[in-house]
Amino acid sequence: MGDAQRPREPVFSDPLLLTPEEAAEVLRIGRTTVYALMKADELHAVHIGRSCRLSRAELERYVRRLEAPRAPRRTRATTDQRELFELGPQSPDAA
């Protein structure tokens, strides 16, 4: 029986759930940042008893959301209000 026909065994070197410290290593950010992202509801943790874990899928979702193009920022409206008070030829006072 060849290797191509054998069912794939789970890879134990890649855990399904990561501690916040391990997630920080994967994302290459600080542990405190991971906890802040969880508190801000940017990263959704799985709670098992008193411990929390982050799935690799959740980390990938977070990174994909960071990579997604953002809507263009709205520019600030001008504070010049002179044109609001200029009366054009259409105004009732011009007639």
Describe the 3D structure.
The protein has 95 residues and is of the alpha+beta class. The chain is 35% helix and 11% strand. The protein has helices spanning 20-27, 31-39, 56-67, 82-85; strands spanning 17-18, 46-48, 51-55. The chain has a three-stranded antiparallel β-sheet. A hairpin with a 2-residue loop joins strand 2 (46-48) and strand 3 (51-55). Helix 1 (20-27) crosses helix 2. It is elongated.
Give a quick summary of the entry.
This protein has helices at about 20-25, 30-40, 55-65, 80-85; strands at about 15-20, 45-50, 50-55. The protein is α+β, with helices and mostly antiparallel strands and about 100 residues long.
Supply database-style keywords.
alpha+beta, 3 strands, 95 residues, single chain, 3-stranded antiparallel β-sheet, 35% helix
Number of helices: 4
Structural class: alpha+beta
Largest sheet: 3 strands, antiparallel
Number of β-strand runs? 3
**Poorly predicted runs:** none
Question: What's the average pLDDT?
Answer: 82
Q: What Rg do the Cα atoms give?
A: 27 Å
Global geometry: elongated
Distance between the termini: 97 Å
Element order: H for helix, E for strand: EHHEEHH
Which percent range fits the helix content?
25-40%
Secondary-structure blueprint:
Layout: E1 17-18, H1 20-27, H2 31-39, E2 46-48, E3 51-55, H3 56-67, H4 82-85
Antiparallel strand pairs: 1-3, 2-3
Helix pairs in contact: 1-2
